[in-house]
Amino acid sequence: MERTILADAGTLRLTPPKAFGFVEELGGLPIALSEFHLSSHFFPLAVRFRGDRPELCVIVAPGYLKKPLVAPNGEWLGGYRPLTLRAQPFELSEGGTGDAMRDVLLPRSSPLLGGEGAPLLENGAPSPMMQKLHEMLVGVRQSARQMVPVLDRLFMAELMVPLLAGSRAEAADPFFVVDRDRFSALSGRGLRAMARVDFHAVEIAVACIFSQRLLKPERMAQRSNAAAAERPSEANPADYTPFLAGLSDLPAVLDEGELFSFDDLDSLHLSVE
């Protein structure tokens, strides 16, 4: 979609959407750290990648959902509307200068933009509505950056599994969710490690599992307790005998040589006191 900056909006006005059929084409909506608890009551939570960065989002693609978010007449049935949905059809530019006039992008053609509704600009500056929308979009982006190391912990703990794709396009941009069995099998030490810096990773994992009741069962990978049974726990630690075999035959001190020789200090013109 061809877009332009807010500075070029001129006399355009925004009419809030009354029909939300367009949401089904968005696939997933990024969410802020402040809204994932509430979002988990209305949408499946998932992680997708934008380049090499994980991004927390809610799934709105109808092929994944047990219940539709949009009625046949376009009415919104999803309850809570995430910040990025409330900001439609606007988005932020890639760079980000802090100036709404250049950071906010809008489509050159949209049924929501026209000669009626709330103005985008007032006296050559962003209207109060646009200032608020800009703050919302900036907040979601800052939150996304903050969550990168948090989501990385979920992948490092090998808790994330991809949802089963229904098409080639879905397979090319998969959604990842927390595997319930793997999370249940996580040791106490593993949980402590995830929560050592903050509790966000554990909170997101629990919210993600809670929200999976909204997914179509056929989209979830076949659950099996086999992997959990093989996973070592504190009560049943891993057997490291093969790895340690032969270590008892090695000398207690592997290298008894000097780090440097005092005989060589003369050549450095240093005195030894």
From TrEMBL:
One Pfam family here: SapC
Protein name stated in the entry: SapC family protein
